[in-house]
From TrEMBL:
The keyword Repressor is assigned to this record: no
A matching Pfam family: Cyt_bd_oxida_I
Name of this protein: Putative Cytochrome bd2, subunit I
Membrane topology designation: Multi-pass membrane protein
Keyword annotations from UniProtKB, A to Z: Cell membrane, Electron transport, Heme, Iron, Membrane, Metal-binding, Transmembrane, Transmembrane helix, Transport
Chief place of localization: membrane
Region (Disordered): 448-469
InterPro entries cross-referenced by the UniProt entry: Cyt-d_ubiquinol_oxidase_su_1
Lineage: Bacteria, Pseudomonadati, Pseudomonadota, Alphaproteobacteria, Hyphomicrobiales
Family according to the record: Belongs to the cytochrome ubiquinol oxidase subunit 1 family.
Gene Ontology terms describing biological process: aerobic electron transport chain
Highest taxon listed in the record's lineage: Bacteria
Length: 469
């Protein structure tokens, strides 16, 4: 049934499918690991049991998400050998050591301290346990650093030469790792992970505030999440703008596709808000645009000229429609996060942060927004790089293994079935865990006397009574 399909397209679809499942788990676990470290630090500092209860609640969810992230990542590494062996052969001398360093540093660090973080509080003591939690969080950040170094090198390759066998070999490891796009992409991805976690935590807190199941812990979760949204969302928008300027410098065709600029604009380019890209006619149909605003954003001048895809050979142009729409989905999610963060600041100022049901309902709906933004951002980045795997040096069509379309199609169907069953079940289990936040162990102030083991404290005995001594 797949004989009429192109093996390269099927292999791309298969990798896109597996990486889309994979990226949502690291994006969540990176932020959640840091959140756990903050919770434990607050517990040690303030000696407030609410933070310890939240730590124990979220560490179980972290363990499940971390496990699914590891499993889904292993599958992708196999595809480098099965579907992309030519790419692995040519780029292996550069990306192989970098991925090896990720295992030797980040993965070993996470694996070494994860068990202590999950099970060791009563065995190693609070301070050593906190060190283990910090090491796990630090390990997730190191892992993101190495993986982003690999992917950034594929986007903006530097510090290499090509040997007689056509392989990319490193000449300067510092230039390889700290390639032109790496700092921007690392900051953008880590902030995205923090926002993703913040909106999941915020949605969980808002859900329980609406149900009034655990008000003390729900208020703490929701407040912390909204602080993160209000502070980090504007920083992320600025970081994304800087990343876009870097992309314009090194991957101009990607920005042309993001903006929908089929034609060059010598006197200032419009910002196309929405429309339907028409690659056949080289235009955006039904475009809603703001004149010259794209030139102002990208060149800081209303009349600055911007080149279009008419300056790029057609066979080297990325698929415009996918990049155009995924970029707008990412922007929509980003500005929605900013809006919710600002709204929460207003409610906090008015003292209604924990009582505004409308805010809580919107926060619940915004829970998956971080995942949507991360997926849309990665689609923009990876599809915008086409038709290259190593930008400007190795075409995707020249990177695939000598494998037939039926074999790739059969494995793609198997992945779809297994992934939706396994990771669907895991995601459902995580949602069940989030919905089962235990009720507060301490009552709210003003609720009456505290009852312990069913006994109501009576009046105090005088010191001279029979129990005085």
């Amino acid at each position: 049934m797949f004989e009429a399909f192109d093996a390269t397209l099927l292999a791309r679809v298969q990798f896109a499918f597996t990486v889309s499942f994979h990226i949502i788990f690291p994006a969540f676990s990176i932020g959640l690991a840091s959140y756990l470290a903050v919770l434990e630090a607050l517990w040690l500092w303030k000696n407030d049991e609410v933070y310890l209860e939240l730590f124990n609640f979220w560490k179980t969810i972290f363990a499940v998400a971390f496990g699914m992230g590891v499993v889904s990542g292993i599958v992708m590494s196999y595809q480098f050998g099965t579907n992309w062996s030519v790419f692995s052969d040519k780029a292996g001398p550069v990306i192989g050591p970098l991925m090896g360093y990720e295992v030797l540093t980040a993965f070993f660090l996470e694996a070494g301290f994860l068990g202590v973080m999950l099970f060791g509080l009563n065995r190693v003591g609070p301070r050593l346990h906190f060190l283990a939690t910090v090491m796990v969080a630090f390990g997730t950040l190191i892992s993101a650093t190495w993986i982003l170094a690999v992917n950034s090198w594929m986007q903006t390759p530097a510090g290499f030469s090509v040997n007689e066998a056509g392989q990319f070999v490193p000449d300067d490891w510092w230039a390889v790792i700290f390639n032109p796009s790496f700092p921007y992409r690392l900051v953008h991805m880590v902030l995205a992970a923090y926002l993703t976690t913040a909106f999941v935590v915020g949605a969980c807190g808002a859900w329980h505030l609406l149900r009034n199941t655990a008000p003390r812990r729900a208020r703490a979760m929701f407040s912390m999440a909204m602080w993160m949204a209000a502070i980090v969302a504007p920083v992320q928008i600025f970081a994304g703008d800087q990343h876009g300027l870097n992309t314009l410098e090194h991957q101009p065709a990607k920005v042309m596709a993001m903006e929908g600029h089929y034609q060059s604009h010598p006197d200032g380019a419009p910002l196309i808000l929405f429309g339907i890209p028409n690659s056949a006619e080289k235009r955006v149909d039904y475009a809603i645009e703001i004149p010259k605003l794209s030139s102002l954003i990208l060149k800081h001048s209303l009349d600055a000229p911007l080149a279009g895809l008419d300056t790029v050979p057609e066979e080297l142009q990325p698929p415009v429609a996918i990049v155009f729409w995924s970029f707008r989905v990412m922007l929509l999610m980003g500005f929605s996060m900013l809006g919710l963060g600002l709204w929460s600041l207003w409610c906090r100022y008015r003292g209604t942060l924990h009582t505004n049901d409308r805010l809580h309902r919107i926060a619940v709906l915004m829970g998956p927004s971080g995942f949507v933004a991360v997926l849309a951002g990665w689609i923009t980045t990876e599809v915008g790089r086409q038709p290259y795997t190593v930008y400007g040096h190795l075409l995707t069509a020249d990177s695939i293994s000598p494998i037939g379309a039926p074999a790739v199609g059969a494995s793609l169907i198997a992945f779809i079935i297994v992934y939706f069953f396994v990771f669907g079940a895991g995601t459902f289990y995580i949602l069940r865990l989030m919905a089962r936040l235990p009720r507060d162990t301490l009552p709210e102030l003003g609720e009456g006397p505290i009852r312990t083991a069913g006994v109501t404290p009576g009046p105090a005995q005088p010191h001279g009574g029979q129990h005085g001594h």
